[in-house]
Amino acid sequence: MKLAVVVPAYNEEKTVGKVIHQIPKRIPGIEKVEIIVVDDGSTDWTVSEAMKAGAKVIRHKMNMGLAISFRDGLDAALEDGADVIVNTDADLQYDQRDIPKLIKPIIKGEADIVLTDRNVWKLPHMPLGKKIGNKLATWIVRILSGFPVKDAQSGFRAFSREAALNLNVLSGYTYVQETIIQAVFKKMKITQVPCKFRAREGDSRLIKSIWSYAKRAGLTITTTYVHYKPLEIFLTAGIFLVLLGFVIGFRVLANFLLTGSVSPYIPSAILTAILLIVGFQIVMLGLIADSINANRRTMERILYLIRKNSKR
Ligand SMILES: Nc1nc2c(ncn2[C@@H]2O[C@H](COP(=O)(O)OP(=O)(O)OP(=O)(O)O)[C@@H](O)[C@H]2O)c(=O)[nH]1
Ligand SMILES: [Mg+2]
């Protein structure tokens, strides 16, 4: 079996080499380990440090964002014939010696994806605001996906070849929540293992402020859910409005049948009309969104087959 370790990096000259050296090169069940650094337009010495440490480097001329780098890393690993893919950060926060533990369920064929749990509450170096943000985002992913994820923000993960072939990252910013929601909806088997997580030296490259992260990650989570469950969302909202319209309109209709007049319920009649029209339109939108969803599934199947049959 071949393992590819993907390391997205943006201006990580101080740590990327150490991360590469720390990655175990001999792992039971693995014949070959390849390290792929995805340099995202770094303006420091990240690329030369990564090459010096022996990694293959894929370069973006401009900063494209972490999610796009992750996607390109997965594609490169698949093209190189990886059977197992690990994604890790270049900032030395994760302990690469956890990799054998991480890939074990995949080698044994017991999981498609292995997530890690940093146990954020117990991390002495993580600020309280970040802990709360992490817990909140994890809770939202748990509710939306229906999977009891423990730490949705940890980027240290392992994927089987089949899982990587099936994932399609659409966000440009962060892939962590999107991939979990997709994996659950695509019925992949997910396992979770605890991992160590050190304090970061220097500033975060990804998170400028908790609010901007929350806004962008929130948008990604919402759109991912809508992409996969449009009918449920629109149908629920539309039917709710139509039913409300019927409840309010019942009195208007009864009065009209008895007296032949809408008065004195004209405001209720207007509200009923609005609720019925808007509700009906939302149901129609749901049906259109569901047709688009069917197209997405077809296209994902085509992409899967193209990836599966290319190179190797
Ligand atoms: N390719 C790419 N990688 C990025 C970008 N921003 C951050 N990274 C990398 O993604 C990994 C995680 O980024 P961090 O800045 O450590 O973000 P984080 O770990 O979520 O947050 P911290 O807890 O503050 O470290 C690191 O390896 C970064 O080098 C980016 O724009 N593009
Ligand atoms: Mg980090």
TrEMBL record:
Gene3D superfamilies: Spore Coat Polysaccharide Biosynthesis Protein SpsA, Chain A. Its EC number is 2.4.1.-. GO terms for molecular function: glycosyltransferase activity. Residues 5-161 form the Glycosyltransferase 2-like domain. Pfam families: Glycos_transf_2 (PF00535). InterPro entries: Glyco_trans_2-like, Glycosyltransferase_2, Nucleotide-diphossugar_trans. Coiled coil: none annotated. The chain crosses the membrane at residues 233-253, 265-289. It comes from the Archaea. Keywords: Glycosyltransferase, Membrane, Transferase, Transmembrane, Transmembrane helix. It is an enzyme of class 2 (transferase). The keyword Transmembrane applies. This is Glycosyltransferase. It comes from Fermentimicrarchaeum limneticum.
